[in-house]
Design brief:
Blueprint: H1 8-19, H2 22-25, H3 38-44, H4 47-50, E1 57-61, H5 67-72, E2 78-83, H6 86-98, E3 100-108, E4 111-118, E5 128-132, E6 145-151, H7 160-165, E7 171-181, E8 199-201, E9 204-206, H8 208-216, E10 220-235, E11 238-251
Bound molecules: S-adenosylmethionine.
Length: 252
């Protein structure tokens, strides 16, 4: 079976999630508008603490179709977006080269609507590079970074702790990790023995917030923690409204 993030459905769902105008994503005035523009908010929410500058190098791990990667490039001089999905990276890279792509997204049933994903002309696309890769086995030679974004990634990894423990080696002292996730642990992606919290251990309920703190504590200080809602449109009358926890970590 084709992995979900390689399917036509996922590509169009994520192009809409990342680049859709508010009225395309949520055509209901009473809907949860504060959950729109999540890929942009993942970058901007902690901007005051990070103090972005053009001297910074940034990495967007699990970048999908790339909106946060481009948003990081508003501020940072060099940004790399890495995702496991070839289809997502192909779309992100076309956006880098062409600045826009046309796509269809689901209305309902077999009906679709037409959209155009566009990169703001104020963003220098030459600052951005996309590569297919595995967050748990990053290739040699990527260098080190001042900002790392991992948005909605850890609960899609086979071994999130292994990935988190490898971060210290690629983040410069004083650099930042923005970690956002709704902590939706599923055996489909992460074997139960590798879940980061969200479990009873020896009769004690261990939250992901607590387990994450334990894993990060050796190399990072927690700077700030907030709820970040997001909305993924499945079709015109069906949505996933979720609340990620956003945590900002500073490398010791
Ligand atoms: C829930 S999506 C989140 C995408 C994006 N960061 C966002 O917030 O919209 C999870 C992403 O992680 C990617 N992914 C899953 N496992 C990965 C891995 N081992 N290495 C890199 N990317 C991975 C998927 O292809 C998908 O794009």
């Amino acid at each position: 079976m084709t992995p979900y993030y390689e399917t036509d459905r996922a590509v169009s769902e994520y192009l809409l999630f990342h680049y859709g105008a508010p009225h395309e994503v949520l055509p209901y005035p009473d809907g949860p508008t504060s959950a729109l523009d999540y890929p942009l908010r993942c970058v901007s929410h902690f901007a005051d603490e990070i103090g972005y500058s053009s001297r910074m190098r940034a990495l967007d791990l699990g970048c999908a179709v790339g909106r946060s990667t481009f948003e990081l490039a508003r501020f940072c001089g060099e940004v790399i977006g890495i995702d496991y999905s070839d289809r997502f990276i192909a779309s992100a890279d076309r956006l880098r080269v062409e600045g826009h792509i046309a796509y269809s997204y689901l209305d309902h049933g077999e009906l679709t609507q037409e959209g155009i994903a566009k990169i703001d002309v104020a963003i220098d696309r030459n600052r951005v590079r996309f590569e297919q890769g595995d967050a748990m086995f990053l290739r040699d030679g990527l260098g080190t970074f001042d900002v790392l974004l991992m948005a909605n990634l850890i609960d899609r990894l086979v071994d999130p702790v292994k990935c988190l423990q490898s971060l210290a080696a690629i983040i410069n002292p004083g650099g930042f990790v923005i970690l956002t996730s709704p902590y939706t642990w599923l055996e489909e992606y992460t074997p139960r023995e590798h879940w980061l919290g969200g479990q009873q251990v020896a009769g004690n309920a261990i939250s992901t917030t607590a387990a994450l703190g334990n894993v990060m504590a050796s190399d990072f200080d927690l700077v700030r923690q907030d709820d970040l809602p997001f909305l993924i449109r499945e079709h015109v009358r069906k949505f996933q409204w979720s609340v990620a926890q956003g945590t900002l970590w500073k490398r010791k």
